[in-house]
Design brief:
Blueprint (H helix, E strand, L loop, with lengths): L12 E3 L3 E2 L2 E6 L4 E12 L4 E8 L3 E7 L11 E6 L5 E5 L4 E10 L17 E9 L1 E3 L1
Length: 138
Amino acid sequence: MTVGILIAVVVTSFAQAPVGLRGSPDSNARWKCGWIDLAQPTNFYKGDQLRLTVGGTAAKIVVRLLDDPSRANSSEGVLGVFTVGADRIVRITLDVDYMGVQQLSVHGGPNPWNLYDLGGGNGPATLSAAQVIRINRK
C-alpha cells in the first residue's frame, strides 16, 4: 500500500511596515493646499496604501499624485475626494499603478480647481507627513 502526502502551498499577501516618503513639504494659504515634492521620482503600485497626515481644518480633501510638478495648476493626477477623520490621517488604497510620481498634494477649501465641491465651510489642508505601506505578493 502506498501512502501519499499532500503538501499545500499557500500564497499570501502581507503588508510591510510604513515607509515615510521623503521630500520637501510646502503649502499655499491662498489655494488652501499643501504638498511634498518627493526627493526622487517614486513608483506606487496597485494595492499600496498611502497614509497621509493632514494639517489645517479641512473636513474633506482632494488628493493628487503628480508626475510633473510644473503642471501643479492643473487637476491632473487627482485620486479623488476623501474625508479627513478626527485623527487627521487619510488612508488611501491605490487601485492602479502610478509611475514616476514627483509630487503628492492635498487640496482643501470649498472647491479646488472649481471641479470638486467640498462645501462652503471647508477649511484649508496642508500635508504634514506621508507614508506608503507596500503590499508584498509572493
